[in-house]
Amino acid sequence: MIRDATEADLPAILAIYNDVLANSTAIFSETPTTLEDRRQWFRARRDAGYPVLVATDDSGVLGFATFGDFRTWPGYRHTVEHTVHVRADARGRGVGRGLVTVLLERAGGLGKHVMVAGVDADNLTSIRLHERLGFQRAGTLHQVGCKFGRWLDLTFLERRLDERLEPGPARLTS
Ligand SMILES: CC(C)(COP(=O)(O)OP(=O)(O)OC[C@H]1O[C@@H](n2cnc3c(N)ncnc32)[C@H](O)[C@@H]1OP(=O)(O)O)[C@@H](O)C(=O)NCCC(=O)NCCS
């Protein structure tokens, strides 16, 4: 089942996040995060009107996904960048695909035009997942990140969400 997360899900989200952080280069950080940090993150997403989704079954939270503004400048307001992480014992059975599929629907529903993923260039599983969902590779920035004592390359993937020819007028207030 995929649903909007609540604050009660944050400990499980934190555990998945810190496990991915400690055991992979999917998150470009080596510093584990805290429940308080996740709470701030969750509230910021909610206040911005953006979704935080969880996939669940009887064993609890299997994975989570969310998006935020791609960049803060107003001209990027039709573009979001997303994140998806699946619990280690739940990978490879469609959870990530399900979460990103619902994220795409939500982003489209909010009138967004493009969704972007920034993926460790060595993370072929994530790149494949996104390509299967219609994302196209847009380019790789080399050695822009580092972790575990080595440089990391970042591959961007993009997916258009609608066929609008023009973005429409700029909002005068944020
Ligand atoms: C990357 C990740 C989100 C994918 O989620 P998942 O639930 O494991 O993937 P799914 O089972 O939904 O598979 C979706 C597609 O990904 C690809 N995929 C999944 N597991 C794969 C594997 N082990 N090797 C290669 N491709 C794989 C497949 O193309 C699959 O589609 P298909 O079965 O129709 O061919 C998940 O493995 C994960 O959280 N990994 C660790 C953290 C991470 O890398 N997060 C992404 C940061 S950008």
Q: How many strand elements? A: 7
Share of residues in helices: 25-40%
Which shape, going by the Cα principal axes?
globular
Nearest-integer average pLDDT: 96
- Based on CA atoms alone, the radius of gyration comes out at 16 Å
Which ligands, by name, code or SMILES, are bound?
coenzyme A
Structural class comes to alpha+beta
The helix-strand sequence is EHHEEEHEHEE
CATH C-level = Alpha Beta
| Intertermini distance | 34 Å
Number of domains: 1
Strand order, largest beta sheet = 1-2-3-4-5-7-6
Per CATH, the architecture is: 3-Layer(aba) Sandwich
Contiguous helical run count: 4
In the predicted model, the low-confidence regions spanning at least 5 consecutive residues are none
Note down, in words, how this protein is organized:
The chain is of the alpha+beta class. It has one domain: Gcn5-related N-acetyltransferase (GNAT) (Aminopeptidase). 29% of the residues lie in helices and 33% in strands. The protein has 4 helices and 7 strands, in the order βααβββαβαββ. It has helices at 10-23, 35-47, 95-109, 124-132; strands at residues 2-4, 52-57, 60-69, 79-86, 114-120, 136-147, 150-160. The protein has a 7-stranded mixed β-sheet, sandwiched between helices. α1 crosses α2. The N and C termini lie far apart (34 Å). The model has no long low-confidence stretch (mean pLDDT 96). The site of coenzyme A has 22 residues, from β4, α3, β5 and α4.
